[in-house]
Write a structure and sequence with these properties.
The two termini are about 35 Å apart. The model has no long low-confidence stretch (mean pLDDT about 95). The chain has about 450 residues and is of the alpha/beta class. It contains 14 helices and 19 strands.
Length: about 450
Amino acid sequence: MSDLSIGSNDQKRTTIHYDRDQLRELDASVVWHAFSQMSGYDGLIIDSAQGCWLTDIDGRRFFDGASSMWCNLHGHRHPYIDQAIRDQLEKVSHVTNLGMSHPTTIELARRLTALSPTHLKHVFFSSDGASAVEVAMKIAFQFWRQCPNPEPKRTLFLALGSAYHGDTIGTVSVGGVSRFHDLFSPLLFPVLRGPCPDSYRLPDGVDATEATDFYLAQYRALMEAHSSEIAAVVAEPIIQGAAGVVIQPPGFMAGLEKLCREFGCLFIADEIAVGMGRTGKMFACEHEGLQPDLLCIGKGLTGGYLPMSATLTSSKVWDAFLGSYEQGRSFQHGHTFGGNPLCAAAALATLDLFQKEQTLEKMPAKVGYMRDRLNEVREHADVGDVRQFGMLAAIDLVTDKETKQPHPWQEQLAGKYCKRFLDKGLWLRPLGNVIPIIPPLSSSMEELQFLTETVIEGLKAV
């Protein structure tokens, strides 16, 4: 039996009693779950969590191997983050961003600019990753209409093949995952799209040593053909997450940024999934010394506690929006909960913990252990590739190791493996034919041993 209590300590509480079957029936018939076929829905119902472990309403414990959709960094119910939120509740839970602010939010903006690539000095807060990218795109569009030398013909965005940037109409337009996005094609605006810079599935006749130059040549051709029309390039640096944890050839992103400078367009780095320490550095941009004009972060920004995202930008972009009221140069966008103090308190505590717990300093040993253990499944008949960058890893399932042909998505092979892992106490969320393995950064070596051994044994058992 589960109890839901409604009301404050000083008020009479209303307690609603549900048994587990009632909760499951309500969850399957009233709650509409994302990317889920509701006709046969039968998902987990999590009652509580602690550290890297989830506990469902049946009392079963599961290791959170997907970091609650790639966002949990320091574990669930971390006392430091919990206390930061409680302290903020004692002051105020929400302050609008329209004509107001709060010291906690102001300090978070300052901390983010101090951590980011050096020329990013301004922060726009939103509530989720897709919104942060949409903000960046709208800023780029408006920038070209009111910068010192306006170029109003710059209305196009250039995106990578198999890109995923969110589920708003704008971010779906720059997205390129056909199964997610094709249905909405009549609603979308035109976008330039280059190839997916994939280090694993290379084009015929291209080997690993040639991949970076090959892909950059494709993007150069696109930018040359549309040099006066491109407002910005939108890209996830180093790794494309929802594309299947696709790792780009070394130097590709640095080369793409160089092309942006050569052809005069803005560069938007989407670090919703790959930022906040996931790759071993606070921002994935740091691996190739990137200096984006706009940087989007979310997911792990609050440690996976509360919905918050941010779009950071340079003074070059910021200055184009300054002027008198009559000039109408203000950025025409806003979110009710943008910069929410509770979220900001959680985010500040999350940043503190990187230092207090030396999160990044401890990662190399964890990354190396994961890589060594996961490599043990390379010879499995269904495994085409095992790839990893930082604590973002993935197992790519194929029908043929030579052709690298994926299984038909209707077979749900990755889902069948993940069901086996779940039976052994490990929660992973499949992504087509790919099994992403993205544990919290706080995972202990013992927990990573459990994770990797469960994957190894689960693959053997199916």
